[in-house]
Write a structure and sequence with these properties.
Chain A is of the alpha/beta class. Chain A is 44% helix and 21% strand. Chain A is built from 15 helices and 16 strands. The N and C termini of chain A lie far apart (55 Å). The interface between A and B is large, with 68 and 68 residues. Strand 13 of chain A pairs parallel with strand 16 of chain B.
């Protein structure tokens, strides 16, 4: 069988399985996820052995220590994956929910019912835990899933997928509902992206290169998350203690993630006081500050920023800082450089808080809270399948509901159109 | 300026204008649409003159009478466009609606606010009224719009867009919010589909060829509607009078539209009675029936169907008819041949009605009503921008709300993440 036929076959099997999965009752899906969790824990030895092969290959290929660490599976991480599946089992099932129903003058009742999307393709890099996390979310929401992980984790991913597929079969469900692309041939991705007749959505998870490749080559709709260039704007009226606490949390608590702050904007009327203060405290915490000329003049720790600093996603203890003359200027700066991820205003001014909320068109807009809250779990959506920074279908952190769509349902008693 | 630069420039202007449009208060948008309606009526002479140039070119090119009729603008059709804009002005504005708000244990309040998508591209064929209809819906929902009509209507479209743009300017709004691609060069479409940095959504409206071209060449998300192969299933327990009325309406009332019935499925237990009856009555109404061998044996008017009849979108007085042995067989047939548009069951059996509603994954599923109701206006959504038969973002008839997305808003009082 050619690679082309193989990928098409796998997509068709997933599509066929998705029709069955769409009808599986909630308790059966929950029991499935719990069995999968138990089976992963029971397979620790096998999983660690397969993972060791990936780690060895990774060392031979000269992967960095950080990469090898992301790749590593040990008992505690496997228990973590299992706990993730059990948590998803606890979440409410979105499928079948009727989100509204109304009566038309002719007496027909029109409503909208939530249904699974169908088949979801996940294309991801290195971390093998995504195999279990993504499978859990897709199956719980009644979808089939096609997984394509990175080649460096192929043995781990095959082993995890194998364990999960056995549980599908054991529950009398089609194991085609969980497909792992078993080859590391890159051409398989290109083929996968052509299966628009069978796959309903592609979610790429990884670096910007992967995401651009997927979105430029896919005939299937893609939900993208390029990067997080999160801004915090400290308004003239801000409570400076609160602003300091929020800035420290947003920059330092976990700098390597997409909801960390990358640019700090400070209102000119607050600059004399707040710039030296925040420069000192962040400097003490090891943050390198790069600022506009006004901020540099106010605090010697701040190095001059260059144009590339505005819009940079450092994912590190580096922060761009800029003084702005007004809320308008802050909004204009954010609109120019934002990645549509998360923006924060710290203010005591009611009209300014409302204007910021309304006028900023990023996926998450916050008043007086740390951008680090921008996360499906923190928002109460449960586990998250990703964060969308494009506006179609979903915008912002995506939970189970975002893996569904709504169909119209109509109850009549013989009505015909005039 | 090259075509490439020209299209990019136009997309950037639309993007810039969209940021202003997103903030325009509802009463101003409504007043704008009403002025546009008045201006179209006031420009009847100009519009009819420009349309005459298109009609003349169309005749020279040998367009069919049906095509020329679709292209034609007269005073009554222009008043129709104006009325359409006035109706959209009356619809509720979806922008700014907070669709939910909840409190997290740490005290932050998380909600979701409806915002415009940004810039919407509409690529359409022949009917010049789409220029006004699409512009009205996009502007009312706070978006900017880029319109690309068919070359055969270029003078009409330019004239209509010119009238509408003048009204934007007269209200002090950016006339870049309504862009018409003024060239008939087909390469302009390809360029438009590359503007993913500025355009948020493409909606193609036209034949299957246009839609395939757009979806295969677009880097921008596309909402597609390929075709409508609507099924009606007459169950064993159906009220045959009701079934007859529904079938006649679904097939005959307006056969050339996508929500007309194309295939009729009849339960074997109803076939002896219902097949001869419906064959006779539809035959008298001029419908050509093409059936499976069982139906042919029951009614001499029915010609044998070939495989291509299942799944055919006739858009004409032709109907495929098939006997099925069970609800399961009906559902399997529909899943195999459906275009995910609209499917109807006629039944008196409660469990069957519920199974059909749940298991059919088309965008509209009806019990005991004509498929001809599958329409935004009939469902009470107001005017419709199109019908989506793909599941992402929207599924089924699309109204104003489908031209928006939701961002997360967060109200805190200084919370930071542990």
């Amino acid at each position: 069988m050619t690679l082309q036929d193989e990928i098409k076959q796998l997509a068709i099997e997933a599509r066929d399985a998705s029709r069955i999965m769409a009808q599986v009752p909630t308790p059966v899906k929950n029991a499935l996820l719990r069995s999968m969790a138990d089976a992963l824990v029971a397979a620790v030895t096998e999983l660690v052995e397969e993972n060791a092969r990936d780690l060895e290959n990774g060392r031979d290929k000269g992967l960095s220590d950080a990469m090898l660490d992301r790749l590593r599976l040990d008992e505690s991480r496997i228990r973590g994956m299992a706990d993730g599946l059990r948590e998803v089992a606890e979440l409410p099932d979105p499928v079948g929910e009727v989100t509204g129903m109304w009566r038309r003058p002719n007496g027909i009742q029109v409503g909208r019912m939530r249904i699974p999307l169908g088949v979801i393709g996940i294309i991801y890099e290195s971390r093998p835990n995504v195999t279990a996390d993504a499978a859990g979310l897709c199956l719980k929401s009644g979808n089939a899933v096609v997984l394509r992980g990175g080649s460096e984790a192929i043995h781990s991913n095959r082993a995890i997928a194998g364990v999960l597929k056995r549980e599908l079969a054991a529950k009398g469900l089609p194991d085609g509902a969980l497909q792992l692309v078993g080859t590391t041939d890159r051409a398989a991705v290109t083929e996968l992206l052509k299966q628009e007749d069978y796959i309903d959505l592609i979610i790429p998870r990884g670096g910007e290169g992967l995401i651009r490749f997927v979105s430029e080559n896919s005939r299937i709709p893609v939900i993208k998350h390029y990067k997080g260039v999160c801004h915090t704007f400290v308004d003239a009226s801000a409570d400076f203690d609160m602003a300091e606490k929020i800035c420290i949390n947003a920059k330092v608590q976990r700098p390597g993630v997409c909801n960390a702050m990358e640019t700090l904007l400070i209102h000119r009327d607050a600059a004399d006081t707040f710039v030296p203060r925040i420069a000192r405290v962040l400097g003490e915490l090891g943050v390198e500050l790069r600022g506009c000329s006004e901020t540099c003049a106010l605090a010697p720790e701040i190095k001059p920023a260059v144009e590339a600093d505005w819009g940079a996603e450092y994912l590190d203890l580096i922060l761009a800082v800029k003084v702005v003359g007004s809320l308008d200027e802050a909004i204009a700066h954010i609109q120019q450089y934002s990645s549509l991820h998360t923006e924060v205003i710290v203010t005591r001014d009611y009209p300014n808080s409302q204007r910021f909320l309304r006028e900023i068109n990023s996926s998450v807009v916050m008043v007086n809270a740390s951008s680090r809250f921008s996360d499906g779990q923190q928002f109460g959506l449960g586990a998250e399948i990703g964060i969308s920074t494009t506006k179609l279908h979903s915008f912002g952190p995506m939970g189970l509901e975002d893996l569904t769509t709504r169909k119209f349902i109509v109850f009549g008693d013989g009505q015909v159109r005039e």
